Amino acid sequence: MIIIKGHGGQVSGNGRGGANTQQSMNAACGYVEGEDYPDTASAAFGPFGYFFPNADSTHPRPEIAEALDRLGVAMVDTVSPEADNSEMPALFTYLGQFIDHDITAGTDRETDFSVIDVANASLGQHEKSLVETKVVNLRTGALDLDSVYGGAVHTGSFGKRLQNAMRFPSDRAKMLLGTSFDIPGCRPDLPNDIATDLLRLQRVIDPDRTIIPSSEFEALTGDLAERFLDEDGKPIPARAIIGDMRNDENLAVAQTHLMFLRLHNKIVDSATPNDVNLGDREAVFEWARQQTRRIYQWLLMNVYLPTICDRDTVNDVVAQGAPVYRSFMDPIGDSGARLMPLPLEFSVAAFRFGHTQARSDYDWNFIFGRGDTDCNPSSDRAGFNLLFGFTGEGAPPMLGVANQLPSNWIVDMERLLNLGDVSHDDRNTRRIDTFIAPDLHEMKHMREGDNANMQNLPIRNLRRGHLLNVPTAQASIAGFAEHGIGITPLSAEEIASGPTGDAIRAGGFEDATPLWFYILKEAELMSNGRHLGPLGSRIVAETLAGLVIHGSGTYWHLSGSDNGRWHPRDGAHPDGVVVDSLPAMIQAVGYL
User: What's residue 284's pLDDT?
Assistant: First the structure.
């Protein structure tokens, strides 16, 4: 029996070269140098700003870098994984990452402006006005599945070529998907079709299955040589051809991305003459994309937000129409009725809560999970670093064992949603707290030199929050108070409690707490890590609900059967399913 388990070691290197450049960040999202990239947020990309532009942040001082680094190191997990399980299915971690990649790109990559060199003991801080000018969102900001279909970054000739490559050649209404490398007897039972991987360059360049002409391929790789070609100029067959290549950096978000591609295609299959002119395949594509977006937005509002946030806070935000986001976007505007501004308090701090939910390993499928099979006699689970390895962005891609996903690594979505007759705690996320899995303190695939701190995700988050002048937690609470929204703060003693207390006190952070850390501490103390606390819930709900409520073209503005508003039962029913829950979604796309 062939067993493909990967090398079992850490994944090192990022395979990009020149990672500390704006160009590399652009390429990571699919943007190509020379395609009229804007220098400021005023052009065709979404802007970033601050909910509270006049609020205080952590004050610059000579020892600030050392203080932040000490706090980051102290956030390492100190409890057993079994004791840190939440009640939230594991899929929510990566659904959150998928949502983040759909609406933001620009605060999670090293650029000339935002480099956080931890080899340097000093750490500066940019003026807020400069951050708003220099940090550009390479996404529209809208919840429009820009990362799936390609949009903001896919302009000009390159964008047209890439989007053409992502469409099925014989039926332009569908998205072109990839297939897995088959290991007989070693794959989950579902889905029972071949579309189990992202579209990869191999399928485009395979001489027996030419998807686009060689001239098109040469133009495509010429535009994005840094991503599709190796240092010798040879194609990298395992590279994914998708709207946002960050979604192929770990297998869990890659399979989540695939789930939305499959949803689009299943919706195409469900189309009737009453829905759209079936003979016009471009019209069918646009109709299916519209239906997919509406389902996505509805699930975010009605499933995702009430799960990750305090429900009373979400209800209040919705009842008031996301008033803080409304005030935030007023002076910034909604350019072209598609570009939505994003607050840095959300992008750089609050919505990074998912880092604490990541597990060291996963009950991934019957091969790498519960059970003892011939495919994996040792019953090893899907380790965190192998999930980064079995992607087109792994180093080497797919760990060098194939040019497409091996079939024993296809996800069992039923396990990631903790469904079935018996519930297992280790199929859930970790709690939202200040204990970060050790693997995120040693992310060697993020390597930029040999400095261990640079591979430490908590340190990177804390440093970036300071560098980009994100308001402290206390200043953010005061900012909400100016809007008439009261949020009970943690006391200095509560903030300094637990294993991170010494680092908090040594850094003087009890009364001026980095926002990202506070969001996690608040959830830890006020909800036992089950969901975000009041401040974290308010920032996340104001932003995500604000994008739906104040965005043009969202389901929110459509009439329907849900007390007058649109509901998934009013739209497409892929495979006969009303997609009004995550179990319903995985059923509709063939995982259940």
Answer: 98
pLDDT score of 163? 83
With a cut of 90, say whether residue 263 has pLDDT above it: yes
| Total domains present in the chain | 1
How would residue 232 be classed by pLDDT, with cut points 50, 70 and 90?
Answer: confident
What range does the domain containing 531 cover? 22-42+52-79+87-588
The reply to whether 28 falls in a domain is: yes
Q: Assess if residue 16 is contained within a domain.
A: no
The 3 state secondary structure assigned to 84-131 is: HEEEEECHHHHHHHHHHHHHCCCCCCCCCCCCCCCCCCCCCCCCHHHH
Residue 28's pLDDT is: 42
Which residues make Cβ contacts (< 8 Å) with residue 218, sequence separation at least 6? none
pTM: 0.91
3-class secondary-structure state, position 10: coil
The DSSP code for 349 is I
Mean confidence (pLDDT) of the chain: 85
Please check whether residue 299 is in contact with residue 263, taking contact to mean a CB–CB distance below 8 angstroms. no
Among 171, 273, 160, 295, residue whose Cα is nearest residue 220 = 160
Q: What CATH number is attached to the domain comprising 248? A: 1.10.640
Is 517 part of a structural domain of the chain? yes
**In the chain, how many H helices and how many E strands?**
24, 9
Question: Residue 422 falls within a domain, yes or no?
Answer: yes
What are the residues whose beta carbons fall under 8 Å from the beta carbon of 24, sequence distance 6 or more?
16, 17, 18, 109, 110, 226
